[in-house]
Write a structure and sequence with these properties.
The protein has helices spanning about 20-30, 40-60, 65-75, 100-110, 130, 165-180, 195, 200-210, 215-225, 235-240, 240-255, 265-275, 315-330, 355-360, 395-405, 420-440, 445-455, 460-470, 470-485, 495-500, 510-515, and strands at about 10-15, 35, 75-80, 90-95, 120, 140-145, 155-160, 180-185, 285-290, 290-295, 310, 335, 345-350, 370, 385-390, 410-415. The chain is an alpha/beta fold. Keywords: Oxidoreductase.
Amino acid sequence: MTSRHFSIETIGIVGTGAMGRGIAQIAALAGLKVRLYDTNPSAIGAARDYLAETFARLTAKGKLDQARSLAALANVSGAHAISELVDCDLVIEAIVEKLDVKQALFRELETVVSGRCVLASNTSSLSITAIAAACSDPSRVVGYHFFNPVPLMKVVEVIDGLRSDPAVGDALMDLARRMGHTPVRAKDMPGFIVNHAGRGMNTEGLRVAGEGVASFADIDRIMREQAGFRLGPFELLDLTALDVSHPVMESIYHQFYEEPRFTPSPITGTRLAGGLIGRKTGEGFYRYVDGKQQVPAEAPAPTELPKSVWVSKRYPQAHEAVVKLIGETSGVTLDDGAVPAADSLIVVTPFGHDATTAAVDEALDATRVVAIDALFPLVGAQRHTLMTTPATRRVARDAAHALFASGGVPVTVIRDSTGFVAQRVVATIVNIGCDIAQKQIATPDDIDLAVTLGLGYPRGPLALGDALGATTILTILRNMFSVLGDPRYRPSPWLARRAQLGLSLTQRDAADIQPETQP
Ligand code: NAI
């Protein structure tokens, strides 16, 4: 390519399924001319009908004025042959997810379009560099990864292949903004940003379930109500469906050469084989009756309060928060002795350790030890998580449950786990986000933007780590790693360095961002 300026007014969309028609919708509404092409001619008609209905519905709801609706529809035309894409400034493919088929399409497109036409792929799992390698001009090939449903998921990843001209990506960043989307820029690495960052929640959620720590529903409740996510890992997997999620989990794991952070779980393979695929088949991790998720009810909390409670001072802030919580919610006596009295319930507040390790490290009577997760603020919490050692007696477990539920906040009691549920899932999410930054796949700001918009998390992984304290996240991971010896939990250097230096996880190296001044 010789020209480095790209004026994009006419777009070809090849593949008019779920993604192609969504992209067509936002492009036509932004005033771009859109040509639809699909090897299945009926898919083109179906996409036009769909767009006509969608624009009419938006108009009826008052979300779109009549004139704009008519103009948008008039912008869309069908192409009977691929040769009709000849005058396109950009062609976006959203066809079947197969490398050889996409390569063949791009080779064919090169014989049709002008030398100034940009070629973009909506692939979510293939390498842009590999697709471009089939082209005589790989510099004009980029990734343009939208999310489903396109009009509602207002983020798009712009992916530079190794030979992509940066000006091509720049032009697609501008175009995304014109279409009302937020673009983020990513390197050509497996999963790009969003599908890479999303490994934390589902693989760690599956690992918690696989260790027998808690039920699927309990893990979801904790992630929603305690950690503040919109959906827990199993609700999310039911929504995306295992026929999609399971192969993605395996593919990203293998593409990173069996990186332990991404290890999938045998749970999903078995459930997929058994047809427990998700919401769309009526049964996944939950059952669905008339489309409604069936959630097993929680057992009522016990009511027998402990007479006295001793709270570990190993983590002073957590000690203070637990004492405050107990003070607010019940009239039980606080045992403030250096060691617990013989009849006191013993509460520990580990970070990344299991209740057993906390009990042993602090030389406590494990039969009376119950741990509470104090990563998120306890006062004002929507849910508390408690866990027991294998030696904890039922009377201690139930007394702790009654105590922490007495203020009306629901409590989930789990089995022993390094990092409860929320700590380990959140720490894994932050750690993977940090690794994406470390690998320079995207800027810290783009990582957080992509994750909040693409995954609907309340905060991006780096901002989440900052909010909870980078040193706390580092402690959780180091402790998990020391107990389990599993390299999955080794802290990302991005996290470890910034936590130790007291820097924000969103900060790039200072030398890269500060203006040059005399030392
Ligand atoms: P889809 O199955 O709904 O639509 C694909 C369309 O492409 C069909 O109409 C088919 O007839 C047509 N097609 C297949 N091969 C073709 C060829 N060689 N030339 C022209 N047309 C061809 O698929 P969907 O869900 O729209 O996905 C399309 C692409 O978008 C895939 O690459 C997928 O990985 C990617 N993607 C999908 C997302 C999703 O959630 N569905 C999210 C992000 C990316």
